[in-house]
């Protein structure tokens, strides 16, 4: 947790506490008072469980274990906390020189991880995170036992990035499980992690993971800096973080990669990237990410290299079809029909005879209908899935043609585009393509190939202006690096890819423009700056209120 | 000159695209009939020699643009008006190129779209790209150079497979002696497109490598000369000198000869794409040169004058001539009246002064 977050969170909590009457925000030596304070602070929530016990022979010392039901590992709590607390009664003495919490921590508690704390706010956050706090009458020191646990989804096959051959485990919502899935694959002390809590209300644990010596220090420092700058109330998914730490927000192209697959994370860590794992989501962020990365799949490395190259070419091709397919069709049929072979042209014209709309309107109608179908397919309950596919196939497939609204060839073009969008391994890149496709549709409808060509120039220029943590988005194509081509569209066989050089050497050989540059304060996403201002304002308001 | 540095491969690609630009599709060296390809090669050679002069100035002042060292060498009173004259030249060249491009486009495919709309779309795209910076322009050129070259290779192979190439149409070489070739070089080819390289004097301070940079640019010029010469030879070999000479865009009818089993035919849309890409990059380079000049002479931020300059180029290109014929005549006249002054005389004077100054300042300590 960064110091700033701690303080900002506290000031808000104080402000909230100030409004309620009679709540003291400190640990009292009187046990009952402490417990009342805790309950008042959380608004007498029913899931706060307090177990009051007496330690030692009668009368004994009053003690209480406080935990949040549902978030704690019940077995650990029962066996290693409560069990050891109540069984080891012979240890207790009435000697006032003995500091009871230290004694319990050192001799009695069997739980693997425990510590002593006396800071009200930290204890409260720990309890809310699932730890068990043991309060002792007469002491302001509190023992915190790590009993975080509770119910999580178990590790299962990833649903968004599938492979035919390759590991089948995927990340889950629990950050501890996710870290272990990565750890299990890298038995190296070089794997480093830094943890912080982001979100002034949710206090979501976020872990930054990298390989020391592989990821450049500049990059790690930059990621750390940007993560620390994130000031936001809630972090419910890694997308929240992604949007706030990326270089620039106004672009349809993703500049940070996300994955559900531990093997992908491991591979990227070893390539010198940094992973950001957010609690509560199976999607792990990988950065920096360049354009080519969104067309790679974990399977490329499990299959033979020639087959992998073929698969990659197919993916790039599908991206081209996705963004240009309908617009090229419109441009050809509206402006440049001389390019179409004569027999096909006659065929096309006879189809178009019965259709009242120009090709552009036709394409727009079909594309929008297809987007409806897709969105419905994603959001609707699984049970009625069959209905939508049947209705969609019938309506969009044959009925529109029979009704004379759309030409059959347009159905083919739109269907092809739809299929192409599914062939791109990264979902967020496919969405970007879907969005850009509409811009090209418009350009083609108005200007034919002229519009498409200028649109392409502007699109490539836009991509060239993008950077992901200082790395040009289109590298290693632009700026051109021959050595970088080993794993882009091509995937050379392993024995050619491994140059036998350590990553440091390889990085030293990279051209200047390929290296991570720091000093992105100016290009930091405006959202961060805005957020910071907002946070600052809120803090000021809080202090005003207290006065 | 700021911290932006542009790599050599990017400079190579922007130079090559700039040179190919409109020259690839128009009938270059048409005055020398079927020996056009020779006059293009000679023109390229002359252009490279002229560029050596610009390179000399650059090597003497690696951190300054043309406007910068003109002011330094000639003093503020003369240097600033000269720089402004160059800015006007670049704006004019950008506008002329855009007029060329949009008119040719209207002739080739977009028969019903108004010129103004075509030009507006073009200038807006250029403004967007330049808004992102000159580095982005050069990087983008790398991608589109690849596309242009691919189209070139594809078209050449297809022409060969269609059996439309008849090399005999190029013979006899220099039927009427060397005189028409020389005349063509003097009248046109050393200036268009090679003399237009003068605008690179505004961009060269961005070069990442002072020593090698100009040589890379000259390499790109030589490549451009070879490619242009090859294309013109191809046009003549396919169409014959007569048709190639009369057609304003000989590459179009040449490419439309491609026909492979009635499936691949009329691929002249590729020529249109090459035309659009070429015009775009050529115009953008002039646009960028003008912008750099404006920001340097008037001490204005680069982006501030972007849209006013874009509007200016758009208006100049529209008001430049009443018809395309007038526009072409005007261009032909400018080519041997005004342009030599800009591209040879002023740099020549600067080189002379620099050399003489250097000579004397070297001697003093010795």
Description:
The complex is a heterodimer of chains A (about 550) and B (about 375). Chain A is built from 18 helices and twelve strands. Chain A has about 550 residues and is α+β, with helices and mostly antiparallel strands. Chain A has three domains: about 5-145, no CATH class; about 175-290, no CATH class; about 305-470, no CATH class. A five-stranded antiparallel sheet of chain A has the order 1-2-4-5-3, with helices on both faces. A five-stranded antiparallel sheet of chain A has the order 6-7-9-10-8, sandwiched between helices. A two-stranded antiparallel ribbon of chain A has the order 11-12. Chain B is built from 15 helices and two strands. The relative contact order of chain B is 0.21. In chain B, about 70% of the residues lie in helices and about 0% in strands. Chain B has one domain (about 10-335): Up-down Bundle (Amino acid/polyamine transporter I). A two-stranded antiparallel sheet of chain B has the order 1-2.
Sum up the structure in keywords.
heterodimer, A: 547 residues, alpha+beta, five-stranded antiparallel sheet, 49% helix, elongated, disordered N terminus, B: 366 residues, mainly alpha, Amino acid/polyamine transporter I, 15 helices, globular
């Amino acid at each position: 947790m960064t110091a700033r977050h701690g303080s900002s969170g506290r000031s808000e909590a104080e402000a909230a506490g100030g409004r309620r009457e009679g709540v003291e925000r400190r640990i009292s030596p009187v046990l009952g008072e402490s417990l009342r304070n805790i309950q008042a602070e959380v608004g007498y929530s029913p899931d706060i469980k307090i177990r009051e016990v007496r330690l030692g022979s009668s009368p004994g010392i009053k003690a209480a274990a406080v935990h949040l039901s549902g978030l704690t590992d019940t077995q650990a709590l029962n066996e290693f906390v409560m069990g050891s607390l109540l069984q080891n009664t012979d240890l207790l003495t009435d000697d006032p020189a003995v500091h009871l919490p230290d004694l319990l921590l050192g001799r009695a508690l069997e739980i693997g991880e425990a510590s002593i704390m006396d800071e009200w706010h930290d204890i409260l956050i720990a309890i809310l995170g699932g730890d068990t706090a043991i309060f002792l009458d007469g002491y302001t020191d509190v023992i915190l036992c790590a009993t975080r646990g509770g119910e999580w989804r178990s590790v299962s096959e990833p649903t968004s990035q599938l492979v035919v051959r390759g590991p089948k485990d995927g990340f889950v919502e629990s950050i501890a499980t996710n870290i272990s899935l990565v750890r299990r694959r890298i038995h190296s002390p070089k794997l480093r992690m830094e943890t912080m809590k982001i979100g002034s209300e949710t206090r979501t644990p976020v872990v930054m993971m990298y390989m020391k010596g592989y990821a450049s220090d500049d990059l790690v420092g930059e990621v750390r800096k940007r993560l620390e700058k994130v000031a936001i109330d809630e972090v419910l998914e890694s997308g929240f973080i992604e949007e706030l730490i990326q270089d620039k927000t106004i672009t349809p192209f993703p500049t940070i990669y996300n994955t559900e697959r531990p093997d992908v994370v491991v591979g990227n860590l070893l390539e010198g990237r940094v992973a950001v794992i957010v609690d509560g989501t199976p999607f792990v962020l990988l950065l920096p990410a360049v354009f080519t990365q969104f067309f790679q799949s974990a399977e490329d490395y499990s299959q033979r290299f020639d087959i992998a190259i073929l698969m990659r070419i197919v993916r790039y091709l599908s991206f081209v079809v996705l963004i240009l397919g309908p617009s090229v069709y419109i441009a050809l049929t509206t402006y440049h029909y001389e390019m179409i072979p004569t027999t096909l042209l006659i065929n096309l014209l006879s189809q178009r005879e019965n259709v009242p709309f120009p090709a552009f309107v036709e394409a727009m109608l079909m594309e929008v209908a297809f987007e409806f179908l897709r969105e419905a397919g994603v959001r609707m309950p699984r049970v009625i899935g069959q209905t939508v596919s049947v209705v969609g196939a019938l309506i969009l497939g044959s009925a529109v043609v029979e009704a004379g609204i759309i030409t059959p060839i347009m159905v083919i073009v739109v269907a092809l585009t739809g299929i192409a969008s599914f062939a791109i391994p990264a979902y967020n890149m496919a969405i970007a393509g879907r969005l850009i496709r509409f811009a090209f549709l418009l350009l083609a409808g108005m200007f034919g190939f002229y519009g498409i060509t200028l649109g392409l120039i502007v699109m490539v220029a836009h991509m060239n202006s993008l950077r992901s943590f200082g790395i040009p988005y289109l590298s290693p194509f632009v700026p051109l690096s021959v050595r970088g081509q080993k794993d882009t569209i091509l995937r050379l066989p392993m024995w050619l890819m491994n140059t036998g050089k350590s990553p440091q050497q390889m990085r030293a050989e990279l051209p200047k423009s390929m290296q991570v540059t720091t000093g992105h304060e100016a290009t930091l996403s405006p959202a961060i700056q805005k957020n910071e201002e907002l946070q600052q304002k809120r803090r000021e308001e809080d202090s005003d209120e207290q006065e | 000159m700021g911290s932006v540095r542009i790599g050599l491969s990017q400079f190579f690609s922007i130079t090559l695209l700039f040179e190919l630009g409109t020259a690839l599709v128009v009938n270059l060296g048409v005055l020398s009939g079927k020996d056009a390809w020779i006059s293009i090669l000679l023109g390229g050679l002359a252009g490279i020699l002229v560029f050596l002069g610009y390179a000399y100035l650059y090597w003497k002042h690696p951190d300054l643009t043309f406007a910068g060292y003109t002011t330094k060498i000639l003093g503020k009173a003369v240097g600033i008006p000269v720089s402004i004259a160059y800015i006007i030249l670049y704006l004019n060249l950008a506008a002329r190129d855009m007029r060329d491009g949009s008119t040719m486009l209207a002739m080739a495919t977009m028969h019903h779209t108004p010129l103004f709309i075509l030009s507006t779309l073009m200038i807006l795209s250029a403004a967007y790209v330049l808004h992102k910076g000159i580095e982005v322009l050069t990087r983008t050129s790398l991608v589109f150079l690849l596309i242009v070259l691919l189209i070139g290779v594809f078209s050449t192979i297809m022409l060969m497979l269609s059996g439309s190439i008849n090399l005999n149409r190029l013979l006899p070489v220099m039927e009427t002696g060397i005189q028409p070739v020389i005349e063509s070089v003097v009248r046109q080819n050393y200036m268009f497109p090679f003399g237009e390289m003068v605008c690179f004097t505004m961009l060269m301070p961005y070069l990442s490598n002072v020593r090698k940079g100009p040589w890379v640019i000259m390499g790109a010029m030589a490549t451009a000369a070879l490619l242009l010469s090859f294309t013109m030879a191809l046009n003549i070999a396919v169409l014959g000198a007569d048709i190639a000479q009369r057609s304003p865009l000989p590459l179009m009818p040449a490419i439309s000869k491609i026909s492979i089993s009635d499936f691949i035919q009329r691929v002249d849309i590729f020529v249109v794409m090459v035309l659009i890409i070429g015009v775009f990059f050529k115009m953008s380079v002039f646009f960028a040169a003008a912008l750099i000049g404006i920001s340097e002479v008037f001490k204005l931020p680069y982006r501030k004058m972007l849209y006013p300059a874009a509007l200016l180029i758009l208006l100049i290109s529209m008001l430049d001539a009443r018809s395309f014929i007038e526009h072409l005549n005007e261009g032909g006249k400018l080519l041997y009246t005004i342009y030599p002054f800009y591209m040879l005389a002023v740099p020549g004077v600067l080189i002379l002064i620099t050399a003489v100054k250097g000579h004397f300042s070297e001697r003093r300590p010795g």
